[in-house]
Amino acid sequence: MKKNAEFLGGKIARELARYDAVVITGASSGIGLGFARAILDCGLSLKLCNLSRSFPSELKDRENFLHVPCDLQKDENISEALSKVFEFIGAGTEKPPRVLLINNSGFGAYGEFPAPSVSRLCDMVDLNARAVVRLCGEFSEIIKKGKGSIVNIASTAAFQPCPNLAVYAATKSFVKSFTLGISYEFRRAGCKCLCVCPGPTSSNFFKAAGFDSPPLPSGFGHQPRDVVLAALRALARDDILKVVGFSNSLLALLSRFAPTRVIVYGAGEILRRIRSAAC
């Protein structure tokens, strides 16, 4: 474990070692899988649970791992899954486990509203926003009792309206505001609560959003591991908000001062050109 801990950074290794269990949504790929890999790199024996529709094949031989098939867009699926998760992590034991909940699942859809369909956009709201609220609420008691933590993955799209990604940006703005709001409440109970806002990341996002191939230049944006390490460092520092990447931090700051009309027009033009270049 020493070599891996040095690779990840001592603070990150110590932060992860605080927990008895980690529950991740969407650990089958992208950023969620990146979190799972970071735990494996540390050589920790903590319990790891994935909530998603797809099984993460990289974790099939890992001990103390549970995959719970779950469509997080549906309340009834979440209810069925949670009973298995709580039993696995030992939620009913006399000494509550210290749990790290990572709400990572989400998707986007590119197009002029209401494309691709009203139904698809409502599914996005259910997964990106409603499921985050549901899981934070369901885990709140055990996290507070065990002095655990919550990490919610938002996006740099949370800082401004995004034409052609209007609903996606709105859901991520919700996640940011919601997470920062409850961070005060959870911290009063001795818990950590962090919102992470990455920029474009190599994942299945663009495919789900309707792009045949990633529309950004090779080398542009983040790798999932970049986001994970930035998130875990921020969690170890007790931050409540982490924007990943220096340029993204500047853009987020700019959005607070530039006129709203300028921000909306600029975002619309950038996204329109990205789409045009990808076609």
What's the layout of helices and strands?
Blueprint: H1 2-8, H2 10-17, E1 21-25, H3 30-41, E2 47-52, E3 65-69, H4 75-89, E4 99-103, H5 118-146, E5 149-153, H6 166-188, E6 192-197, H7 205-208, H8 224-236, E7 241-243, H9 246-254, H10 260-278
Parallel strand pairs: 1-2, 1-4, 2-3, 4-5, 5-6, 6-7
What topology, given as strand order, has the largest sheet?
A: 3-2-1-4-5-6-7
Largest sheet: 7 strands, parallel
Number of domain units: 1
Structural class by helix and strand composition: alpha/beta
Low-pLDDT sequence parts: 1-7
| CATH class category name | Alpha Beta
E-strand count = 7
- Name the shape in a single word: globular
Helix and strand element order: HHEHEEHEHEHEHHEHH
Q: How many H/I helices?
A: 10
C-alpha termini separation? 46 Å
Account of the 3D structure:
It is a single chain. The protein has a single domain (2-278), classed as NAD(P)-binding Rossmann-like Domain (Rossmann fold). Helix content is 50%, strand content 13%. It has 10 helices and 7 strands. It has helices spanning 2-8, 10-17, 30-41, 75-89, 118-146, 166-188, 205-208, 224-236, 246-254, 260-278, and strands at residues 21-25, 47-52, 65-69, 99-103, 149-153, 192-197, 241-243. α3 (30-41) crosses α8 (224-236) and α5 (118-146) packs parallel to α6. The longest helix is centred in the middle third of the chain and has 29 residues, at 118-146.
